[in-house]
């Protein structure tokens, strides 16, 4: 909405020339040139009506004369058709000019009204307030538009809408000053304003409305935004953390803020367990938090007038594995295993054995060799990023008594007090075969033992080490190490298997590549394995039974022999006593005689 200005008064029916300040004013003589014209003249009328002649042109001599009028010196030009031009239009040129054509019998006159216009400068908001305060009427600034003509009008706007004057809220005063030397106006409109909180970021501007040669126009100032100060009405506390959840060991920052402007710089923080508030800036930092930091946190203004609170939960996760570390048990024994979890939320627990996730938790009522391995109990809180715990159980199962076919191979060396003690020392079996391409041979070292033995290949004689062996997966205490060679002559290969218990060495002669050879296959099917195992168990059982029977027979025989020797001694002693008695009787008889 642009306020309208009243149109400058013009003489009705009179010809008017509109000119721009500083341009050239051109006024044609609107009379028809009569016959017998002697000369033409221009004059202007003073406010009191008296004429002032300024230019003369003869129709016969064609000469032009300009009157000595200081305001128009060197500014006038009169053409042959009696058109008058005035250079560098001024506000003082707003007059009634008259063209006169003179003959011997008559004088003709035609008036022209001159209007001069000057666009004001773009308005500026000066003497701006540093800031505005709510509930306080204060000077916002002054809108100034300089050097305009005719005088215009100034309107204030807020966010693009007219700011209407309201008592004690928006007070507007317009002042117009005329420069006496130029006749130009400078307009100054001051605005006193009482802002509200909603005026924060509001854009204030002013518009000057003025008249130009073509009609009414406007020109607008640049918008200005003022900093509006208002008191705090609400306090807010928030937790600044890198994640949405907090766990033990994290750093936590509490931030307190007020919605006032400018915002408060100091607050009181209330920590669980503390009776008095802790004075601090708008932040309070806690490092390496523990579970006992869980609780309600508050903050307030320093005058305790406003307060807000929030609850912090410090998540934790404890894991207790029993037993843990390295545990050695004998085959057939029971081993209770428990993984106890204590956490701030429901935790997910799973077990891993030898890098493979288990479907169920381990339970050992009767330990077997395949139960040996590295067990990991791991737990996580899925809702809490980065919170997980794990503990490890390294289970070693040692043999006790005849258990497998392989154990029977060395039980004779392990009898102690009539018990056969089996340990997981490395056992080796080597095989060889010529590959189908006839260009190489595959040598396999089948290894069984626990803990898993380390395997090394060497060439007997030279002692060189072969590093290109490939191993199968270690399952139930068994695995294979394989090499592929193409010997040009006969060679002896040695397979060395070593773990914490013992070192086992086995050698195998391999013919040159030109001599094909086939050993027993590397893999045996499950049925044959089961039959061999059953046979092995039967053989071991028979052997152990015979040994126990022989042992029992030996003990019985030993006891019998011992008893026999004792009885013999008693008989000899009794016989000796009888002989002595006989000799005494003979001696007595001789004495009596």
What is the element layout, followed by pairings?
Elements: E1 15-20, E2 25-27, E3 37-45, E4 51-58, E5 64-66, E6 76-78, E7 84-86, E8 96-103, E9 107-117, E10 124-126, E11 132-133, E12 138-148, E13 153-158, E14 161-162, E15 170-178, E16 185-193, E17 203-212, E18 215-220, E19 224-225, E20 228-229, E21 235-240, E22 246-247, E23 252-258, E24 267-270, E25 278-280, E26 283-286, E27 295-301, E28 307-312, E29 314-315, E30 317-322, E31 325-330, E32 338-343, E33 348-353, E34 356-357, E35 373-380, E36 388-398, E37 415-416, E38 419-420, E39 427-434, E40 441-448, E41 454-459, E42 465-466, E43 470-471, E44 478-485, E45 491-498, E46 503-510, H1 526-592
Parallel strand pairs: 1-9, 11-20, 22-29, 31-36
Antiparallel strand pairs: 2-7, 3-4, 3-8, 4-5, 6-7, 8-9, 10-12, 12-16, 13-14, 13-17, 15-16, 17-18, 17-19, 21-23, 23-26, 24-25, 24-27, 27-28, 30-32, 33-34, 33-35, 35-36, 37-38, 39-40, 40-44, 41-42, 41-45, 43-44, 45-46
Describe the 3D structure.
The chain has five domains: 16-117, Immunoglobulin-like (Sandwich), CATH 2.60.40.10; 124-229, Immunoglobulin-like; 235-312, Immunoglobulins (Immunoglobulin-like, Sandwich); 317-398, Sandwich (Immunoglobulin-like); 424-510, Sandwich (Immunoglobulin-like). The radius of gyration is 61 Å and the shape is elongated. The protein has 593 residues and is mainly beta. The longest helix is centred in the C-terminal third of the chain and has 67 residues, at 526-592. Strands 1-9-8-3-4-5 form a six-stranded mixed β-sheet, with no helix packed on it. Strands 13, 14, 17, 18 and 19 form a five-stranded antiparallel β-sheet that branches. It has a five-stranded mixed β-sheet with strand order 31-36-35-33-34, with no helix packed on it. Helices cover 11% and strands 43% of the residues. The model is unreliable at 6-11, 401-423, 522-540 and 564-593 (pLDDT under 50).
């Amino acid at each position: 909405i642009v306020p309208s200005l009243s149109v400058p008064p013009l003489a009705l029916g009179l010809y008017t020339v509109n000119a721009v300040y500083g341009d050239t004013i051109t006024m044609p003589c609107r009379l028809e040139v009569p016959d017998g014209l002697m000369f033409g003249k221009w004059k202007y009328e003073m406010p009191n009506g008296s004429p002032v002649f300024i230019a003369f042109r003869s129709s016969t001599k064609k000469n032009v004369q300009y009157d000595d009028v200081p305001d128009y010196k060197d500014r006038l030009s009169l053409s042959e058709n009696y058109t008058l031009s005035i250079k560098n239009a001024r506000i003082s040129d707003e007059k009634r000019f008259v063209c006169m054509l003179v003959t011997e019998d008559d004088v003709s006159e035609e008036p022209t009204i001159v209007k001069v216009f000057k666009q004001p400068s773009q308005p500026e908001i000066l003497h701006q307030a540093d800031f505005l305060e709510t509930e306080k009427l204060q000077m916002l600034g002054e809108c100034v538009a300089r050097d305009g003509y005719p005088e215009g009008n100034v309107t204030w706007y807020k966010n693009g809408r007219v700011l209407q004057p309201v008592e004690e809220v928006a007070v507007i005063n317009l002042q117009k000053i005329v420069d006496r030397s130029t006749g130009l106006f400078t307009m100054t409109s001051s605005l006193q304003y009482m802002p509200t909180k909603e005026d924060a970021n509001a854009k204030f501007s002013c518009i000057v409305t003025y008249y130009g040669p073509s009609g009414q126009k406007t020109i607008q100032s640049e918008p200005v935004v003022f900093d509006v100060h208002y008191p705090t009405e609400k306090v807010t506390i928030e937790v600044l953390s890198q994640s949405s959840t907090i766990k033990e060991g994290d750093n936590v920052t509490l931030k307190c803020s007020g919605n006032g402007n400018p915002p408060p710089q100091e607050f009181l923080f209330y920590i669980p367990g503390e009776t008095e508030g802790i004075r601090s800036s708008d932040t309070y930092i806690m490092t390496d938090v523990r579970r006992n930091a869980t609780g309600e946190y508050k903050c307030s203004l320093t005058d305790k007038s406003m307060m807000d609170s929030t609850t912090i939960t410090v998540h934790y996760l404890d894991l207790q594995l029993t037993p843990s570390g390295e545990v050695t048990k004998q085959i057939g024994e029971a081993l209770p295993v428990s993984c106890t979890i204590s956490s701030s939320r429901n935790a997910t627990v799973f077990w891993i054995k030898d890098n493979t996730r288990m479907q169920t938790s381990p339970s050992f009522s009767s330990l077997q060799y395949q139960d040996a391995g590295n067990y990991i109990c791991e737990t996580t809180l899925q809702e809490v990023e980065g919170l997980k715990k794990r503990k490890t159980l390294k289970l070693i199962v040692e043999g006790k008594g005849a258990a497998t076919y392989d154990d029977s191979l060395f039980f004779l060396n392990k009898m102690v007090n009539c018990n056969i003690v089996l340990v997981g020392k490395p056992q080796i079996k080597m095989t060889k075969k010529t590959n189908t391409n006839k260009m190489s041979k595959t040598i396999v070292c089948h290894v069984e033992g626990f803990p898993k033995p380390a395997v090394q290949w060497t060439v007997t004689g030279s002692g060189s080490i072969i590093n290109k062996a490939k191993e199968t997966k270690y399952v139930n205490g068994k695995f294979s190490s394989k090499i592929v060679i193409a010997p040009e002559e006969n060679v002896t290969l040695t397979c060395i298997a070593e773990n914490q218990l013992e070192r086992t060495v086995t050698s195998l002669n391999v013919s040159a590549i030109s001599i094909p050879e086939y050993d027993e296959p590397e893999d045996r099917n499950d049925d044959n394995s089961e039959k061999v195992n059953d046979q092995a168990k039967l053989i071991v059982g028979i052997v152990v039974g015979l040994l126990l029977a022989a042992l029992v027979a030996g003990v019985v025989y030993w006891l019998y022999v011992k008893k026999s020797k004792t009885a013999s001694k008693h008989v000899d002693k009794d016989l000796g006593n009888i002989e002595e008695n006989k000799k005494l009787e003979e001696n007595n008889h001789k004495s009596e005689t």
